[in-house]
Design brief:
Elements lengths: L1 H32 L2 E2 L11 E2 L3 H8 L1 H32 L6 H9 L6 H12 L6 H8 L3 H4 L8 H12 L2 H13 L3 H9 L4 H9 L4 H16 L3 H6 L12 H10 L9 H25 L8
Antiparallel strand pairs: 1-2
Length: about 300
């Protein structure tokens, strides 16, 4: 028994050390840093100036951060409804016995294996471009000159174009999760429903959807994490922060105040750490609410 305990300790110790060094220490340092004014994140602790909760108070009063939070909320809510609905619809279709299931699944999932920078570049240059983009050429071809002249990369349409592109690249990932959940439902349930006269559509809404509560909770959790960490897409769409806020998200703002980019003269690593803490709290709140509202043990077959 003692020998087994020694072996367990030997195997667990490297993993524990790695966890403390790579995860626990940065988390604790970020939380502590959020209570200080820090010019550079690499400054020694001796140069930190304690300000208490002032960083969080400054965030609450900063218009740019407020706009960034609103943008993130719109991406989470509107984008979440679009992505999860379309992903669930595709999952239901592809698990209904359709011919060529694997081909369609691969096609829909392809955008998820392409780098976000490459995907953003494709949408900006080849879809939304107002001179030779796909939308411009299509609307010109059908004679809709007004729509062909729209500039999707400026004004109020800029956020909409960003949201559509991001949702397009996210559907395939959540579709696979929903497909996995649907395929775990016993086929006997659908056979019994078919014998009782229920069609595919009725089965989808009365059987499939109710039995996917746990899967939906997983998808909502992953979606929240991806939206809170929204950075690359926003960076590709955003003009300088001082003149364009329609696509600014909290992580873009955190990057700006931490490293003093995009025209921000004063750097404050403590304020950037406070943004990170707020984002972590947002994720925890969503996790808690979803966990309370959606329970796996509510499902009984």
């Amino acid at each position: 028994m003692k020998q087994n305990k020694k072996m367990i300790v030997c195997f667990l110790t490297p993993a524990l050390i790695f966890f403390v060094a790579a995860f626990l220490y940065p988390i604790c340092r970020t939380v502590v840093m959020s209570l200080f004014k820090v010019e550079s994140i690499s400054d020694p602790v001796g140069l930190w100036e304690f300000v208490g909760l002032s960083n969080f108070a400054d965030l609450a009063e900063t218009t740019i951060f407020q706009v960034a939070m609103i943008n993130m909320l719109k991406i989470w809510l509107i984008g979440g409804i679009l992505v999860l609905s379309v992903a669930l619809l595709f999952a239901g279709i592809l698990t209904s016995g359709i011919v060529g299931k694997n081909v369609y699944r691969a096609i829909i999932y392809v955008p998820n294996i392409i780098n976000a920078v490459a995907m953003s570049t494709m949408w900006i240059n080849y879809v939304y471009n107002k001179r030779f983009g796909l939308l411009h050429n299509f609307f010109t071809w059908i004679g809709a000159d007004g729509l062909a002249k729209l500039d999707y990369m400026n004004g109020s349409l800029k956020f909409v174009s960003l949201l559509i592109a991001f949702c397009f690249g996210s559907v395939g990932y959540f579709m696979l999760i929903f497909m996995s959940g649907i395929e775990q439902i016993p086929g006997d349930v659908f056979e019994a429903a078919t014998i009782d006269g229920a069609g595919k559509i009725k089965q989808f809404f009365t059987i499939t959807c109710p039995l996917l509560k746990g899967t939906f909770k997983t998808c909502l959790t992953f979606w929240t994490v991806s939206v809170v960490g929204f950075f690359v897409w926003s960076q590709m769409w955003s003009a300088p922060l001082a003149s364009e806020m329609s696509t600014i998200t909290p992580f873009i703002y955190m990057y700006n105040v931490t490293f003093g980019t995009m025209g921000n003269v004063e750097r404050n690593g403590g304020l950037g750490a406070a943004v990170g803490v707020v984002m972590a709290l947002v994720v925890l709140v969503v996790f808690f609410v979803v966990g309370r509202l959606v329970k796996d043990d509510d499902l009984e077959l």
